[in-house]
Amino acid sequence: RTVVAGSAGSVSSGGYAMMGKQDQVSQEGAFRQYANGNTRLILGTGTSRIQTLVLRALSQDQVDTLNALIGHTIIYCDTYGRRIFGAFLDLTVLSLPLSGGLIDVALTIQSVSYDEAV
Q1: How many CA atoms lie within 13 A of 74 on its CB side?
Q2: Taking Cα atoms as reference points, which of 50, 38, 29 lies closest to residue 115?
Q3: How far apart (Å, rounded) are the C-alpha atoms in residues 90 and 66?
Q4: How deeply is 62 buried, as exposed, middle or buried, from its count of CB atoms within 10 A (0-12, 13-18, 19+)?
Q5: Which of 85, 86, 104, 107 is 20 to 30 A from 117, alpha carbon to alpha carbon?
């Protein structure tokens, strides 16, 4: 978008400039400051999604990869092909006896805001 500003107009140090008419246009929303110092503009309510998964028969290398992803933004594609940007903060590891070292892992992904703009 391009915003064109006029070259004339001023506001005195004592208050408002004299205008014949004043219009104000607004939209519902809020600015939110987060602990990391970022500020985000929130224009509407979103629906947070939570997806609980059980990943079965993983190798130790795959479990190590999941451990390294704890707390990082990931992309999960559900069975309908929708992408969910989310993160998980913990996972439950279950060793399978007599399975040749295969492991089941349970985790819960919480959707997060993410911008793919380049």
Answers
A1: 19
A2: 38
A3: 10
A4: middle
A5: 107
d(CA 97, CA 20): 82
33 close to 39: Cβ distance less than 8 angstroms: yes
How far is CA 92 from each of CA 4, 53, 55, 76, rounded to the nearest angstrom?
56, 10, 10, 18
Residues 72-105 as b or e (16 or more Cβ within 10 Å = b) = eeeebeeeeeeebbbebeebeeeeeeeeeeebbb
Could you tell me the two tokens for 30? 């809020």
Candidates 65, 111, 109, 113; CA nearest to 89 is 109
Measured on CA atoms in the order 38, 2, 46, 67, is the torsion positive or negative?
negative
pLDDT in tens, 59-109: 889 999 999 999 999 998 878 888 888 999 999 998 777 778 889 999 999
